[in-house]
Amino acid sequence: MKSLAVLPLFGILLIVYNIVMLTGDASVVMAKPIFSATLISGAAWSMSVGELMIAAGLVVLFAEMFKATRTGTASILDHALSMIVFVVFVVEFLVAKEAGNSTFLILGLMSLVDVIAGFSITIVAARRDLAVGTAVQ
Asked: What is the pTM of this model?
């Protein structure tokens, strides 16, 4: 189970999006409402597949921030894999017609934040650990 903790969670969202791309027109599927409700104010609110993917991306980003606080060799592998996932996001956004939309762009930007924050948080945590280790002597 620990080996699964190294896998970048944005990779899962990327795979889900690619499955949607392969099954049909991604822009139509992403715009399709999956949930609707009438609020107390009387306003009609609905959520599309694309908006659900963005909400899932925010949850994944939150989880990735916690994963970034770890130090050690596993975190280096996690950051490297997260970088690869981000590169795939960029390449697909530029090359794949079905990925050329705002939903995919926002997920890709969240992946970029994951990469940058992951390295930054790990460096700060490693410095803290090093400072604590030298103060004990």
From this structure: 0.83
